[in-house]
Amino acid sequence: MVEHRFRRPAMLDMELADQLEGDIDPAERGLIAHETAAAIVSQARASRDPELVARLIRLVDEEGIDTVAMMWSKAGEHTLPGALWRLYMLREWVVRDADAVARSYHHGVHAAHVRHAIAGVGDPPGPDEVRALADTILSGVYAGDLAVALDRAGAFCRVVATGAAFEAEADDGHADARAHRTALRAAQLLRTGEVLEKCATMWRDERLD
What does pTM read for this prediction? Predict the structure, then answer.
């Protein structure tokens, strides 16, 4: 695929994030979100530096989720910053709750085997395997086929959502509060998967910015 060329100079520091603090114009906030996302992705993909990619994968670990949220959480769903926000949130959730994520993924595999093949989680899908996939997806954003990375993330969300829906059904009638929470999580994951897959299509069409 043809690489995207961004008009703005590429930057890799978090300085623009500071401008998002306080009560600023929403249009300006959106511009900063798009500029930081485009700059970081563009320069990382141009540099082909494994150390830089590793740092970006660990961005939340080192900068904190609040910094990433400040930059990208308000961006539209079908935008590059919106996609990055969802990928980092997905990784944060997987890292923090890998056992539960792996359990839901395992429960969803047989009903969503095509999505499982796209996601590419190692077999058997345990906590280490889902953590590894989350890192691999972000690595693909910065040093691989970005559309494939988004498709893998979307497929992963769909498999986990399927498993969570089964878990909610199993709890229904005797653990209703947990069933309700799990059903909501399944719905949210399904929506996230749909958004990421749409973003993958838009990137291939050179419409994701």
Answer: 0.88
